[in-house]
Amino acid sequence: MNLDKYRREHADIIRHVQELKKLTALGIAGQAAAIAREVIAMSSVIKLHLSVEDRFLYPALQEAGAALAAKGRQYQEEMADIAAQYGRFSRQWNDAQRIAEQPEGFRADANRVLKILFDRISRENRDFYPLIEAT
What we know:
Layout: H1 4-26, H2 32-62, H3 66-92, H4 96-101, H5 103-134
Helix pairs in contact: 1-2, 1-5, 2-3, 3-5
């Protein structure tokens, strides 16, 4: 199975996370509009990525043998919680005025949710995708 598309989307998501870090370092309140735009842009990539995984990757893994099917179900179930957390984050922080009014709330949520997202992407790239390719 060719996972290059998934890896490219992961790299795109990580670029958005890095851009949010840069904007935050410049000052949350002053960069609120750019931060909100970045959250919206990243959300589009994440929604597309999750949709493609659910429609193609995970169903294909169900046909790839019991061990890989079980691992795929585990990753999919874990992702449901991460996606819900990210969804709440993106709905809360896609508004520049809200970000400007609550910069420390944004910072706390971003640090928590984006770390979870980054860790998950890293684990998929390091552990899950090589397992799929080896099968």
